[in-house]
Structures are given as structure tokens and as C-alpha cells.
Amino acid sequence: MDFKNLFLWIAFVLPTSVLSQSITNPKYEKFPEPSIIQRDLSGETRIVRRNYDKLVHYTAPNGGKIKIVATKDVSDEQVLRAYGILGFFLTDVPSSTYGADKSSVANFMASQDAMLVMPGGADGRSPIRNRALVGQPLYALEFPVEGSKPYLTNDFEQRDAGFEEIFHMVQDLGIGTKFTDGALKNSFQREAEQITKTALEKGLWGRGDSDVQNWIAELRQEGSLQQEYFAAILDSYFGYWGGWEEGSGGMWGIYAAKTREDVIRTDPKGAKLLQSFLPDRVTYMARIDPSFQGTFEMSFDAQILYTHKSQYLTKARLLGNLASNISGNNFDNVFMGNPSDNHIDGKQGRDIVQYPLASTDVTIGRLKDGSVIVHGAEIGKDILVGIELLRFTDRDVPL
């Protein structure tokens, strides 16, 4: 860093501390860490003990547990991402029709012993036997974490099925379906049935050849038409088909809409149903893969296909030790860097950079161009642009 450009340097010079310290700042947000993952499964059923290697509990408002179990082929980061997505689906959305209070949905899931099972491999190509799939499956090769190679390259051979499969669990065991009970069976589910019927009649969903039509017939027989239709809306609305260049529409062309704009324009009733339960932005902390190097972009750029997805993120954290960067979007963002030198640009909105240490463990300065530099033994030298607030374990520092 060229300190010749430095015109202001505010120093808090006290002995450096370790990152695991007490938190006295009530606004400091605690995000899920690998430490929440359990390795001892001795208290679980025999089939879980014999087939899975790690476990994390999502706690419902009534204290009940929704379980996520995974094999050793599934990384800890994949487990934490699944936990984050589940939490995102079950977080209240104020003023929404069905999502303003989701406690009944989460509580119902816990009462039904809802479990997400995460095996290695992919559907039909997994080392785990079908009899061990004792919950909603989500396979390792169908669930890339943000910043990983298949995520960045939009590798549809490893299509990100995370939103789809996890919401299937929420819908099957919490909301309710045609053949299963649930907290919103007589409201959300009833509306979903009518909208699905309309979408099929108008050719918005279920498009395709005889194989697709046979699949639709199977879904109708087993009572899962609404679940699959809503999953198609969900994936297109949050950008998971925007980067697909091999055809039109989403979900391999079965759904007419590929992007959020398409959903709102071509399937307004489907968009309204989604908005009645979920927010328009993704609120879990995206943990950027430790192998990522460069700048993780969170603003849409048609030349960077993964930004179809990342444009809806609001929180991002750099992992590993590589000198990487984040470029935010127009939402109110929360960022966290890694121990190396990072450049973080908040863009528009009211943006926060959170550090897992006290303000007394860093020096804070400002450069002539208006950017802020934060320096500490455990965080390197971070250059911050468009950031309105620094958040430490002891206090907030407005910029």
C-alpha cells in the first residue's frame, strides 16, 4: 500500500487479539460457522449413523429440530449453505400474505421430523443406497457453493438444485401439499393448485415433448404438480436459469420464464405467489469458496453469467487466505473479508463491513480518493469504497 496518498490516519493501537473474542456490540451479527456442525451422530437412528458423517440442526421457534445430515463427500461449506438457504426460506417477510409469520411452517416441519439428506455424487450416481435416503435428498454434485468453479461457470452438468430441493422439503413437510398436511394447506397450497392449473392451460409450464408430458402425468398422480411448478418459478426468479444458453425458458425449457423479469411479465400470478411467501432478495450470508480469487461480482453483468444469481445476494463473506475482492450491488449489503488484503466496493445502498474482532485491534485511515483503509494483523490491509459503516465486536464505527 502506498501510504503517500494517505491524508488521514486514525489509530487505535492496542495489543492484537484472536478472532474468537467476546461480543459486546448488540448489533454484531453472528453468522453460522463450521463449529455448528456435529460429527458425533451416536444419538441418531441406526440408518443415519451408518450412512452419514455430519449433522446440523435448524431450530424451529417451538424448539423442535429440523435436521440436515451429510456424508463425508459433502463439504462443510455445502452443509452451511444448505442451512443458510433453509433459514432464508423460513425467515419472516413482513407484510407478505403468507410469509409474515412462518413460525407455524417451521414448527410443523419439526413436528414431522423433517430432514434434508446430503449424499455424495448426483441423483442416480451416488454411492449411497436409496434405502438410506430417509429425507429430502440434495446431492453433492448438484449443489455448488458461491464462488466455486461450477457456480462461476454456470456448469449445468452440476446444476444448482439447492433452492429447488430445500423448498420441496419446506413445501412437503411444512406448507402442505395435495396429499400431505401442513400449516398453509388451506391458503398457500390452495392458491398454488389453482395457479398451477392455469399455468398448464396457458402453456407457461409443462412445455415439452412426450417425455415431459409423461413426467407431468406422473407428478399429477403423485400429487406433486404444485411443488415442481413452484420450484420452476423459484429458480427463475432468483436467477438460476438466467445463464442457461442452450434453450429458451427455465428448468430445461419446461417453464416459459428464464429470468425474474420473464416471470413477472409472462407469469404474473406465479410471481405474486412467490412474493406472497419470500422476499425479493437473498438474505443468508453467502460464504465465498476458499478457492475463489479475483473479484466476486454482485451486480448484474450480462458478460458474467453467474451474476444472474449473485445479483440478488445481500451478504457475502470471503473465505480462505487469497487476496480476493467483493463488488456489491444496490441493496443494503453486509460484507466480511478474509485474513488477506481485500478490496470491497459497496456500490449503492447502506453497506456494512463486519470484522470478527474489536475496533481496538485495527487502524482505520482514509485515502485522498475517499476510500477507507482498515489494517490489522489478523485482517491484512482492506481498501473499502462506498461503505457507510464498520461493525466490530465491541462497537459500530460510522464512516
Structure description:
- With 399 residues, the protein is of the alpha/beta class.
- It has 3 domains: 3-21 and 282-398, no CATH class; 34-185, no CATH class; 186-280, no CATH class.
- The protein has 11 helices and 17 strands.
- The strands form 3 sheets. It has a 7-stranded mixed β-sheet, with no helix packed on it.
- Strand 16 and strand 17 (396-398) form a beta hairpin.
- The longest helix has 14 residues, at 76-89.
- The two termini are 21 Å apart.
Quick structural gist:
This protein has 399 residues and is an alpha/beta fold. 27% of the residues lie in helices and 19% in strands. It has helices spanning 46-51, 76-89, 103-111, 149-152, 162-175, 188-201, 210-222, 225-237, 260-266, 268-275, 307-310; strands spanning 6-11, 54-59, 65-70, 115-118, 136-137, 282-288, 295-297, 313-318, 325-327, 334-336, 343-345, 352-354, 363-367, 372-376, 380-385, 389-391, 396-398.
User: What is the averaged pLDDT score?
Assistant: 94
Low-confidence stretches: 1-20
Specify the number of helices. Answer: 11
Structure classification: alpha/beta
How is the largest sheet built, in terms of strand order? 1-13-14-15-11-9-7
Task: Indicate the radius of gyration in whole angstroms.
Answer: 22 Å
What count of domains describes the coordinates? 3
Main sheet characteristics: 7 strands, mixed
**Shape label:** globular
How many strands appear in the DSSP assignment? 17
Q: Tell me the β content.
A: 15-25%
Give the proportion of residues in helices.
25-40%
**SSE string, helices as H and strands as E:** EHEEHHEEHHHHHHHEEHEEEEEEEEEE
Terminal-residue CA separation: 21 Å
